[in-house]
């Protein structure tokens, strides 16, 4: 049986951080964060490199402690009314090699007490990419239905923000207008904490990523990125 990637201690730490989200508490518990959250997450990224390469050679598993696949724990509070300094979740993004930020095509893992999930797609694509995806959906509705149906639909749900009105240049009567109105093109599959902390989770997450491949391949083609 394969080793366990994450322990319940990760979720316990994040739950306590949610109740004590201040710099003093975090400083006192910094080593716990490193041991129970950061290091297991970095190891997971490193371990996922080979399964990810088998899925596609164009996505990165970057195991650096900063600037890589693991998002930093510190929140950007410069323009936020919420001044709590730390995120209360772990975010891991296996992004496309052609881009260096969260808005690139990629696979994602979100670990949060009571709200863990696996995801794939493009979050907040820029205007040209957004239009390219919308045109791909409008121009080949059959292909979009295929990649968002079947096993995918049994596993994932489409999430993200939408426009209230059809975007300029698109027919309001198009049968897929609700998907064309999307501002985010992402799918999510909920994860139980028990599953995340069980042996074999690496393989289970890889299977979820493989299920999302046709969806992500469609998006990559729409934004001229090689899958």
Condensed summary:
The protein has 227 residues and is an alpha+beta fold. Helix content is 44%, strand content 13%.
Describe the 3D structure.
- This protein has ten helices and five strands, in the order αααβββαααβαβααα.
- A hairpin with a 4-residue loop joins strand 2 (106-111) and strand 3.
- The protein has a single domain (8-222), classed as BirA Bifunctional Protein, domain 2.
- The longest helix has 26 residues, at 30-55.
- The mean pLDDT is 95.
- It starts with 7 loop residues before the first helix and ends in a 5-residue tail after the last helix.
- It has a five-stranded antiparallel beta sheet with strand order 1-2-3-5-4.
- The protein has helices at 8-19, 23-28, 30-55, 127-139, 141-147, 150-155, 177-180, 193-196, 201-211, 213-222, and strands at 90-95, 106-111, 116-122, 157-159, 185-191.
- With 227 residues, the protein is α+β, with helices and mostly antiparallel strands.
Main pleated-sheet profile: 5 strands, antiparallel
Judging from the principal axes of the Cα atoms, what is the shape?
A: globular
End-to-end CA span: 31 Å
CATH architectural name = 2-Layer Sandwich
What value does the average pLDDT take?
95
**Total of helices:** 10
Q: How many strand elements?
A: 5
Strand percent estimate: 5-15%
Main CATH class? Alpha Beta
CATH-derived topology? BirA Bifunctional Protein, domain 2
